[in-house]
Design brief:
Elements lengths: L8 H16 L17 E3 L2 E5 L8 E4 L3 E5 L3 H17 L10 E8 L2 E7 L4 E2 L7 H16 L2 H6 L10 H17 L13 H6 L8 E3 L8 E3 L5 E4 L6 E3 L2 H11 L1 H10 L4 H21 L7 H10 L19
Antiparallel strand pairs: 1-2, 2-3, 3-4, 4-6, 5-6, 7-9, 8-11, 9-10
Length: about 325
């Protein structure tokens, strides 16, 4: 199998220059150039081109102040990138927050796609807290996703994914909590609130599948200085599946109370809210336990703290929890 080329600053510079030239001539974006050695920051025609992350082989690049270039590193990512272009057009009319738009797309190497997207104004959800009005934006997002026709999404190639077993996650979380307790990172007794009967009661309901973003991390939320959610990035992993997964993502991203309030505003009842809460808590425990040997535990610790923030959720006594759910 031929190894995929490595994107470099020179690769990106040549591709951006070709797109600029095509734009001047009124042409559609053409395929990218062959890989070439290079590195660092490239500047051409006054446009700053630099990696958006600190990865050794970055695939996301800032192009000036208004665009972001994303390069698919392999064929699987190429399929997702191309599907994402069509999915964003399907989702955009249904949600109240901005979804990136592509101004050019093609191939940066044979069989490997790129997309040049508009850069949404605002900062990362990792830097800006979501306000009460921002929670209403998240509620609109969840409502809109539920309104997207599932059949149309599946026609675009969006996969249907079965709900995860909360009992399986609970057992894995018990082991993770024990490791974290030994490392003085978490009190394992707190997980005893999720009993096997409660996990069974919180199983996903038949016929509840909707289009889910499936990666609502803080890094995929674009938040303004006023706390409003201005946009959502990262649609390549969207699936048709359990809506509690997006509630779980928000619990880790913005905190359990805000996630539950947003889901409630979106019309979700106690069961999916509690299911999303426990999906988040189990995932966060497993992620931090796996990262114990890493040098930087900041993000896993933040996700765990957010997921385990205490909430007040009414009308859940029939699901094996109290009105004061920790």
């Amino acid at each position: 199998m031929t190894q995929a080329p490595t994107p470099t600053a020179d690769t990106v510079r040549r591709l951006v220059l070709s797109l600029l030239e095509d734009g001047r001539q009124g042409k559609a974006g053409r395929s990218g150039t062959r890989d070439a050695r290079g590195g660092g920051t490239a500047q051409d025609g006054g446009i700053d081109i630099r990696p958006a992350t600190e990865d050794a082989e970055p695939t996301t690049w800032w192009v000036g102040t208004r665009h972001v270039l994303r390069l698919a590193p392999d064929r699987e990512a190429t399929v997702r990138r191309r599907r994402e272009l069509r999915l964003r057009d399907l989702v955009r009319p249904h949600v109240p927050v901005a979804v990136p738009a592509s101004v050019a797309h093609g191939e940066w190497a044979p069989g490997l796609a790129y997309t040049l997207d508009t850069r949404l104004p605002g900062g990362s959800g990792e830097r800006h807290a979501v306000s009460a009005v921002g929670e209403a934006d998240l509620a609109g997002l969840l409502t809109g996703l539920r309104e997207v026709p599932v059949r149309q999404a599946e026609t675009l190639g969006v996969p249907r994914v079965a709900p995860r077993s909360l009992e399986t996650l609970r057992r894995a979380a018990v082991r993770a909590a024990q490791r974290l307790d030994e490392a003085d990172e978490f009190d394992a007794a707190r997980l005893h609130q999720l009993t096997p009967p409660a996990a069974a009661q919180l199983a996903a309901q038949p016929g509840s599948a909707v289009l889910t973003h499936h990666a609502l991390t803080a890094g995929h939320l674009v938040v303004g200085a006023d706390g409003r959610v201005r946009g959502v990035l990262g649609w390549s992993g969207a699936v048709v599946g359990d809506p509690a997964e997006d509630i779980a993502g928000l619990a880790c991203a913005v905190g359990a109370p805000a996630a539950v309030r947003a889901a409630t505003l979106a019309g979700y009842g106690a069961r999916p809210c509690l299911r999303g809460l426990w999906l988040a808590r189990c995932d966060a425990l497993a992620d931090l336990a796996e990262a114990l040997t890493a040098q930087d535990l900041t993000l896993p610790r933040t996700r765990l703290r957010h997921a385990w923030e205490p909430i007040l959720l009414e009308r859940v006594t029939d699901l094996g929890a109290t009105d004061d759910t920790p």
